[in-house]
Amino acid sequence: MAKKKPRAIDLFCGCGGLTLGLKKAGFDVIGAIDNNNLAVKTYRANHKEVEIWEEDIQTLSVEKVKRKLRIKKGELDLLAGCPPCQGFSTIPTLNGAYEVYDERNDLVFEFLRFIKELMPKAIMMENVPGLSKDQRFTRFCKKINELGYTINYDILDAADYGVPQRRKRLVLLAGKNGRIEFAKKAKCKRSVFDAIGNLERAGNSGDKLHDLPERRTKKVKKLIRMIPKNGGSRNDLGKRRQLACHKKCDGFKDVYGRMAWDKVAPTITSGCTNPSKGRFLHPEEDRAITLREAALLQGFPRSYRFDVEVGKGTIAEMIGNALPPEFIKRHTQRIIKYL
Questions:
Q1: Active site residue 82
Q2: Domain of 311, in residue numbers
Q3: Which of 268, 247, 248, 246 has its CA nearest to residue 256?
Q4: pLDDT for residue 239 is more than 60
């Protein structure tokens, strides 16, 4: 008889990157929660068998979830999730400040509420590094420690765990029966070429996500053509040939930069198809990376479905906010071993 898979619930599931990583590790994802309609639509298109609540987690009863999934307190193997992290961002505001009040910051306590009422055997929470310096995180850790969990957390770079991009994240693992260790770092890193080097040329590939056209002014197109191939940046052009707005700014040096084939990509963000938002130009072609390339650099498979009808910006936001499945897979394999 086949061994029963450990069961997991994905809080704040977005378009499904965490769920995909959990599945790849060997979990049976039985439930998911998110209140973003378009993200949930994408999630359902790729994870049809998962029971999903398209609701505000703050008003969702944990008892309702337990009844629907037929689980009792203490039976769930893993509760995992990434509370919305924009409120903990370390990108400064226009006036130079880093701390911004954002009501989404308090959603870590909704995660805590689910922990208290489900008492899973293991917990995984992923977030931006800035959360580690917030007093809410200190309170969160104190409370789950009081519930009997042993906590292990650190700031990890996804590039060290098989993801072809730099992406530093706070990862917390907690277990009811002792410490859960992180996965071992990979011996070598996956490059941009490993992820997207063999794709068909964008525009006529037959993949709608890869073929969406760009709209750029002649001035910007000319600038892009001048950026040296394979890792070049606007700084290579000298001040005279840069855009007027760039001449006045000494920061954000990756803006209008190209990725390099043999290196990892920069962090894939919601601005990943806009060269004015970072180093998001293709290594060779005179364009920004496509949505499919962005998804592949996050670690989604080529078969992952996104509906282009919702708009380029919406899909870019979903991809940029997603958790890299390979990163999740490697750490949750350790959780399975622990269980």
A1: no
A2: 192-320
A3: 246
A4: no
